[in-house]
Amino acid sequence: MHKTTRDRYRLRDARRGTEFPPRKSCYSRYKYLILFSVITIITTSIVVPVVFVKVIRKAWTANQAEKDLSAWTHSFNITTDWDKSWPETGITRDYIFTITEHDVYIGPDGVVKQKAMLVNGKSISSELVIQPRTGPVIHADWGDRIQVTVVNQLQANGTSLHWHGFRQLNNNVNDGASGVTECPIPPGGNKTYHFQATQYGTSWYHSHISSQYANGIVGAIHIDGPASAPYDIDLGVFPISDWYYSPADILLSRVMDPVNPFVAGLPGAPPPSDNIIFNGTNVNPYDPESSGGKYARVTFTPGKKHRLRLINTSADNTFTISIVNHDMTIIATDFVPVKPHPVKSVYLTVGQRVDVVIDANQEVATYWLNATFSATQACGSSINPHPAAIVQYEGVPWWKPDQVGEPPAESYCEDDVGPVPVVQRALAPGTLFSFTGGENTLDVSLAVNSTVSKVFWAVNNQSINVEWDSPTLGKVLDGETLPAEENAIEIPGRSQWSVWLVQNLAPIPHPVHLHGHDFQILARSPAPANPLSPDSRPTLFDPATDSFRLFPSQNPSPIRRDTTVLPGFGWLVIAFQVDNPGVWLFHCHIAWHASQGLSVQFLEGLGGVNGTAGSYLPGGAGAVGSQESLDGEFGGNCPAWREYDASGLNPWPKLDSGI
């Protein structure tokens, strides 16, 4: 239930750190002000009070500009560890998302997309479009509860929605991963997701079934909370995404075809995107001067500092974001607040979010906001070679910027691990004392299965393959034994740290994402300058020379986030705390690679990987969701999906990993 307007303003005042005084009558509260005003009007000219009001307003505005945004309420601020505590606002934000299917869809760039699947009839957009806070943007405050009813009006496809980066503490059943925590929502069906914004910052949601979200089922999430640096204007979320004119399943079938790859001689090579969409729009890449599309615009107020919430919602493409003649200060990486970290540009891999503050201190004009691809050609490419949006200062007419600007530094497909979290977490003493990888090693490789003539990505020689009609969480609750092809790895215990070495035996870098947690990036190998060269070879983790790099003496303040880059032909060591029971995916976020099987499932604190009974769950089934949510999924949505799947009406059998 939403609060009254008065309560909302009282909540706003609480965020500013003010207390609520006892309510008084208007006269008793303002009698001295009224008396002073009457005397002033009688004894002075009209000019004096007008000047007085202007002076007061100017002083108040200056005070707001200098306000410390690290405070939220009297009990919560930027130093609060949101793994341990968060506000309880008593507010629920309700949304209804209807997923629809559109053939021969005129896209935001004016070009026909053969198949689009949209949320509430819109491709991804943000508060910056003409209709603020409409369409697929979820907007809430830290501590709010969020309730989203998803109505599936697709012609023949199931669907689900995953809330990227949300911890979902003791709420695994609402994570939204088909075949893992739920069955797909059948056509004509609906499901209501319930979760709380225990974190704050910027994120997104997307369908989590095969490569479906590449058809357009994505949206942005904006959770207001404290900030580690001051700013004057929050411009809101700014999603940036690759865009394909062909249907995702058609593209995927060719990616998985060893005989007819997009790049001759390279089975599994992805297609170039047709365009890059900024905040829901861009010009036609084939005819930029046509009237079909338009550049996205970001408006700066001269002399003000602006917060811009960058999100890479792509299926495959990664890029470096820069604004001509403007520097940026990073204040958050994914959902993790960081100490102000000045940069010239920001690299964004798939699934990552970076919140930046930009000072509008340049000449009042228009400037290009550029998305630049890596010259290595290992982490995405597009038919649009120089995608861009436009930054426009208030007070100037709109025109295309004159200055192209200097290209940003080459990323080598590597994200920045320099930002330091405001809230730092220390691994338990001795956790890394003898770490060598061993059983906690995940080897990533590309393989061609000649039996079925398909290209797969494997982890420890096994590509994940989940069952839509029998999700992993349901099997665990029922005490069933899990098939080997589900790539389930049991992590017993609680409150300890789990450390993993991920070794990439292929030249392609992978944006790896962990559900249910963020993780510390303890160390990684350097990104290769030319991973696709025939002479390139894997750099293997060597315990004798690399283990020391994991210790706090070498990396005292490791960055935390929920998505990072596994270097091509390289290695990555991450650590997360075992404190959230459930079945959590750890997968590559390139849509094609996830469909090709590049994933494992961590069974955390469940004791269910070998068929032990659900009673082993701490606190019973409530440790992975409320009884209402569990009953709704396994007593309602799953039976509905099985009925649809057995009806003969489903023309699309599962041909990939399912995730």
UniProtKB/TrEMBL annotation:
InterPro entries noted in UniProt: Cu-oxidase-like_N, Cu-oxidase_2nd, Cu-oxidase_C, Cu-oxidase_fam, Cu_oxidase_CS, Cu_oxidase_Cu_BS, Cupredoxin
Catalytic activity: 4 hydroquinone + O2 = 4 benzosemiquinone + 2 H2O
Top-level EC class as recorded in UniProt: oxidoreductase
PROSITE patterns xref list: MULTICOPPER_OXIDASE1, MULTICOPPER_OXIDASE2
The name this protein goes by in its record: laccase
Domain of life where this protein originates: Eukaryota
GO molecular function, one term: hydroquinone:oxygen oxidoreductase activity
Species annotation: Rhypophila decipiens
Upper taxonomic lineage: Eukaryota, Fungi, Dikarya, Ascomycota, Pezizomycotina
Coiled coil: none
Gene3D superfamilies: Cupredoxins - blue copper proteins
EC nos: 1.10.3.2
Keyword terms, alphabetized: Copper, Glycoprotein, Lignin degradation, Membrane, Metal-binding, Oxidoreductase, Transmembrane, Transmembrane helix
Residues that span the membrane, as ranges: 32-53
Plastocyanin-like domain segment(s): 108-226, 237-395, 469-604
Cofactor: Cu cation
